[in-house]
Backbone:
């Protein structure tokens, strides 16, 4: 711990966990004959050989109260906002996914109850069954008192502009609960060029997949239908805000030739109104500076991406960021408290 370790209330907002039942389900997926691009990572983590370096990941995902709390203490991290790790329940059949989402939410609520000052949590839901998802979402917020939702981009290669998913979006909006769209590997139609060089996941594929989900939602008019829906993107906004000028310009052209529906606002205006971003796994002061200037400091939240990224450099990155102390307090905790309804200390 450094001398400054207690200087800020650090709320880390994209912190992954799993439960044994979901891990067992993903091991079964790993041994099944599916061709989804996520299989590369699912095999590596959930069907790892004991001597594989990846074998270290699963115990760290399953641990909530031992090594994790020690890591938080050692690095001056006050709170993990926990989320069931990618691909969540989205590779299971609809019934299994619905049941496992509810089980994961129950476990999450239990651990938060044991450590109410150290943990908050994003609830899972199964987009495979949108009506049941909406019910679980209501239970997760109203009964379990969870702080928002997590979903891992596409479901069976389909995206949220498809109205079949809208009961879930409608529920999130009605519950005033932000949906954190975490990455998963590119959908079937996008997958081929990502099968080489380790591009399937965090190196490149995750960002392409998740930015595509966000842009499809914007240009299809999802935010005209659900104007109060809040979405959170990790990994410095998956770079969407770098594209806003060109998105506005080219979306107008697409609208004018009838390729895209007319929208009430420009794409950039939806991004600034309906989205917040986090710094998970993207420790560049240059990118942080751009993000704060592009979106406003109130829309940028801090995250580590535990256990996929180490905590100490994520803390050092934000502690040393060339921004005012007032802005640092917002990025470290004020924005997370507002967006995810986390009690201030
Ligand atoms: C990795 C990163 C793997 C993330 C993951 O598996 C997730 C990785 C679900 O770096 O290998 C992530 O959340 O960024
Ligand atoms: Mn992550």
Residues:
């Amino acid at each position: 711990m450094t001398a400054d370790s207690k200087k800020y209330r650090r709320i880390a907002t994209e912190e992954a966990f799993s439960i044994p039942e979901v891990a067992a389900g993903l091991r079964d997926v790993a041994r099944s004959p599916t061709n989804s691009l996520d299989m590369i990572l699912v095999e590596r983590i959930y069907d790892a050989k004991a001597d594989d370096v990846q074998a270290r990941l699963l115990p760290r995902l399953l641990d909530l109260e031992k090594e994790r709390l020690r890591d938080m203490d050692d690095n001056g991290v006050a709170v993990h906002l926990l989320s069931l790790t990618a691909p969540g329940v989205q590779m299971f059949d609809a019934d299994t996914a619905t049941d496992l989402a509810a089980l994961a939410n129950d476990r999450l609520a239990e651990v938060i109850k044991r450590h109410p000052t150290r943990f908050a949590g994003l609830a899972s839901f199964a987009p495979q069954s949108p009506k049941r998802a909406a019910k679980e979402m209501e239970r997760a917020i109203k009964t379990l008192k969870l702080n928002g939702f997590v979903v891992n981009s596409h479901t069976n290669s389909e995206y949220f502009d498809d109205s079949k998913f809208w009961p879930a979006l409608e529920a999130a909006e009605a519950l005033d609960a932000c949906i954190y769209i975490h990455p998963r590997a590119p959908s079937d139609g996008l997958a081929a060029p990502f099968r080489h060089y380790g591009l399937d996941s965090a190196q490149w594929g995750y960002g392409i997949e998740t930015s595509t989900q966000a842009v499809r939602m914007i240009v299809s008019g999802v935010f005209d239908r659900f104007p109060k829906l809040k979405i959170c993107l990790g990994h410095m906004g998956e770079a969407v805000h770098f594209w806003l000028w060109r998105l506005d310009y080219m979306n107008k052209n697409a609208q004018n030739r009838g390729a895209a529906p007319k929208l009430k606002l420009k794409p950039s205006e939806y991004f600034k109104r309906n989205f917040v971003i986090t710094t998970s796994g993207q420790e560049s002061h240059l990118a942080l500076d751009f993000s704060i200037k592009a979106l406003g400091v109130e829309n940028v939240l801090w995250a580590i991406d535990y256990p996929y990224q180490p905590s100490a450099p994520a803390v050092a990155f934000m502690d040393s960021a060339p921004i005012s102390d007032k802005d640092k307090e917002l990025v470290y905790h004020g924005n997370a408290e507002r967006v995810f309804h986390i009690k201030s200390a």
Remarks:
- The pocket of manganese (II) ion (ligand 2) is lined by residues 14, 16, 182, 234, 280, 305, 308 (CB under 6 Å).
- DSSP finds 15 helices and eight strands in the chain.
